[in-house]
Amino acid sequence: MRLTDDWFTALSEDDNGNMVYINGRDKIMDFITSGKFKERVEITWKFEPDSKGLPSPELAKLMEEVQLTLQKAMEKDKLSIMTGTYVGAGERIMVFITRNIPAFGERLNLALKDFELLPITIYTEKDPDNEEYLDMYQMKENAIE
């Protein structure tokens, strides 16, 4: 299986009608259907939003740096794969599928050790059928060109 770095961007709304930007990973269906990635990790970073629900340019830059650091650390041996991000309404959610939650946690701490303490929360859930990814992937038909 080859992991590509192909993504699509779509717009959606949350339950309160706030705009949310979705960046979804494309061309990873072989990983999704392999049965090896049975757990999902969601890392949520809440922030003070601007009038559009987005972070300030400075914070957006830091968030992007953290995301790239995590993606590189988690995907180096395909322990975990970043499947998507949601940004809007005062939060950024980074979603990963993983083979092993404890190993993910150890790697997360190592990857973020050079950053100051970040205001993130981590949620994990068994998702053997990757339902969250498949739901998000349906947004590809609304992708922004």
Beta-strand fraction estimate: 25-35%
Query: What is the number of domains?
Result: 1
Give the % helix: 25-40%
Note the overall shape: globular
CATH top level label = Alpha Beta
Span between termini: 27 Å
CATH architectural label? 2-Layer Sandwich
Indicate the low-confidence ranges by residue numbers: none
CATH fold naming: Alpha-Beta Plaits
User: Radius of gyration, rounded?
Assistant: 15 Å
* Neighbour order of strands in the largest sheet: 1-2-4-5-3-6
What structural class should be given to the helix and strand makeup?
alpha+beta
> What is the arithmetic mean of pLDDT?
95
Give the helix tally: 4
Number of DSSP E strands: 6
**Helix-strand pattern:** EEHEHEEHEH
Give the biggest sheet. 6 strands, antiparallel
